[in-house]
What we know:
Layout: H1 6-10, E1 13-15, E2 20-23, E3 35-38, H2 41-56, H3 66-73, E4 83-90, E5 97-104, E6 111-112, E7 124-133, H4 134-137, H5 141-151, H6 166-175, H7 177-183, H8 188-192, H9 210-216, E8 229-238, H10 241-246, E9 254-261, H11 264-285, E10 297-298, H12 302-337, E11 348-353, E12 355-364, E13 367-376, E14 378-380, E15 399-402, H13 417-420, E16 440-448, E17 458-463, H14 465-471, E18 474-476, H15 485-491, H16 494-502
Helix pairs in contact: 5-12, 6-7, 6-12, 9-11, 11-12
Amino acid sequence: MSRRSYAEECGFISRVSECEFRINTGFVEHMRVPGSFYVNKHLEQLMFEELEVYTKRGDTGGFLPAMKQIANVAGLPGIVKKSIALPDVHSGYGFAIGNVAAFDMDDPTAVVSPGGVGFDINCGVRLVRTNLVEKDIQDVKEQLAQSLFDHIPVGVGSQGIIPTSTDALEAALEMGMDWSLREGYAWAEDKEHCEEYGRMLTANPNKVSARAKKRGLPQMGTLGAGNHYAEIQVVDEIYDKSAAGKMGIEQKGQVCIMIHSGSRGFGHQVATDALTAMERAMARDGIVTNDRQLACARIQSEEGQDYLAGMACAANYAWVNRSSMTFLTRQAFGKMFNCTPDDLDMQVIYDVSHNIAKVEEHMVDGRQKRLLVHRKGATRAFPPHHPLIPVDYQFTGQPALRGRSFGSTCRDAAHGPAAFTPYATGPARPVLIGGREPGLSGWGALRPGAGGTAGVHSYVLTGTDKGMEETFGSTCHGAGRARSRNNSRNKIDYEQVLDSLKTK
């Protein structure tokens, strides 16, 4: 297909509402369903500028524009309803970051694609509460931040202090948080407040390469680099006291800890291995995609099942990783305040995943279907009374954790959590900003305390029926960005970041 002009491309895009756009079939070849993306005015401008640049440039290097990626996903076999992009959408590998797509498990042609999960499988966010308030840490916040650094290894290639043998790794891959509980690194209550109860039962370590295990063995209980963080936060505002109370948040100024990390090098290797196998499967089965980065395999094929078993191992690894860092965080706080973590009420509020594929039941065209839902840079946000959320949250809906991102480099529903800051004393639904994002109600905003590096807010929200209907019960993860890492380094000096933080 010859490249169209920008005006011709825009002819396939229609506005559905103030914040939703529809990508109509024909925008790219082979679209089976339409695409849809949710943006505010700032992100709308970025999305269309990206498309305009693409139509004018002569080369085809780098990632495709996010709109093209959303549409290409809409052409994958077995996809249902629409290809969805949530408000922190930006270009990624194959799928855009923030892309959600569901595939009919009963369709023999339906596929699973590692590009729809990402390389950092089960990268996710965990929020831990305490009974401390800001004044309790004011005089020791520097020491507390240093204690976290001392306990939790950080950086590319960092190695963990949680003792892990080869046999222990195999058990952790299969058992997930059940292994953490058995070894004393987790509390029984932690599992109740974690997606899948911290364990995907389909995990099979025999489907994981020796290379992946070698990479994962030394990294258990490590934070990593990039946009990962362990941050001490303070409750800045409570919008729904009843929902907040269910989560153990009783007052402004209450201290919490947010941990954002994933499956480290282990998950990356699982994804890499699967992409190689799926390229062969595509040739064998005659699967054609618009982008070679959308390598995929039939869900029920040997390659598809092997990937899902390996992905489940990586998901379990990530839950064990976050559990290990929760254990280390509890140890750091206990030593600092000379008491037990239990005395500090250091309970897990919730743990969400935002790079994962799961089998779920959803309504499609008035019929209940079993779907494989890919969420890449997207968080599950199920509504009240859903059977897969904890009994504690049956009347509130599943907590959805909107972690902070990188200030001026982020790309969230209001140009990043930083842009939400003026709304901290505003409406009851801060991240909706007048209802722009389907599927969430918000109960509180948290700002960085002792360990903050970005000086921006995080949010805890709850899923709604509208989100279940429109986005397969999904919302954006809040760790997107408007610039690539390299572009950010070129545009923003670290001294600018430090100067900005001083004004927070």
